[in-house]
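Could you help me review a protein record that somebody else here produced? This is what I was given.
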Amino acid sequence: MKNDKKEESRVLLENYKVLLHKALDWLWERTKVERKEVKKGKKVFTKIKITLPKKKEVYKTLRDELERINVLASHYVDKAINDAYSILRSWKRRAEKGKASLRKPRLKKVYVRVKSTLRKVEGESVRITVRPYEYITFSWSHTWFSRRVKGLELGEPIIKEDIVYLPFRYKLPLFTPLDFLAIDSNLYTLDAYDGEKFVTFSLKELYSIKFGMELKRSKIQRFASKHKGKALLRKYSHRERNRVLDYVHKFVNELLEMYPITMFAVEKLNKQEMFRDASDKLSKKISKTVWRTIHRVLKYKAPLYGSFVKEVNPHLTSKSRCGWVSRKVGRTFRCEKYGFTLDRQLNASLNIYLKMCGFPHIRDGCGLGVTPLKGRRGMSGALPRDSGEAQRLRIDIKYYEIL
């Protein structure tokens, strides 16, 4: 919405900018930048290491320094320190990769994200504290979105010179999820286990979108320099991103409608580490995946359905419950100790399920021994499964294609 209180908010923005500049300068003086030369074969590379001052050690001293020049409410001092650290951490990640200079990051346009302790919602308006007993009030009663946000909870407002952003969110449910779903991310599928059966979601349509747009971009790149086709290249890149996001949102909506009020477990994947051990052919396939995008969209849409998302470490999710780790490459996992056999991807989803539910590994055999956790549902009569039953579940895989 438009900022109709420009004069009052200008006082807040200018004084907050002074605090943020002071915090950034103070932390910059204590930031260490080290350069090391690393040899890789015949080439010599310069490696940059940046060390920021630890927040716990300098927080009190920095806060006292800012309080001396602060004319706003005291909570803005804490916000300025957190924002200064956020700016420096972002600069550090880019500078260590060579994507940013080693000079102090500059502040272009300052905005204020108001903490929950500095705002009070009264009906269809929010009162924001600037100084003790000095407030700014913004109302959304006559805006176009006033009906759409009825019953929703106001988040942290963002104030700029001309615009005020009011983020609204659904209130989280006060009960625990009833179902659990563990998802193993693969090249063409998402293999899941819900405590009762294995479910495989096909992502071939998404992969074909990425592959088709890659072919179009490669044709454009051949004449981009000669015929000034860079604008056309950007057009197709945006089109690919929009198509992928459209597919991901539809897929996540279908998934959440199938599994409402569910605790989802996904792998915390790192593509850069996958590229190190992968061949060139596999690296190209991995680059076309959008696992993190699916996980991110699922994470922020899950609360709308009363669900939650938990990230688990994917390390050794292909092992069996007895702890046996198979180093053989293949479609099927086989425990050479007890003879348990299962599809490798389904076995990974099963282990993610166990990690999410906190099941320890057992050492007296590879029987699955999985008792489904169903929240408040009754557990009477639940029996542990053996490997034979798991193999029968392997046959009853259900495929879902989201069009």
Summary: Confidence is low (pLDDT under 50) at residues 360-403. The longest strand covers residues 32-40.
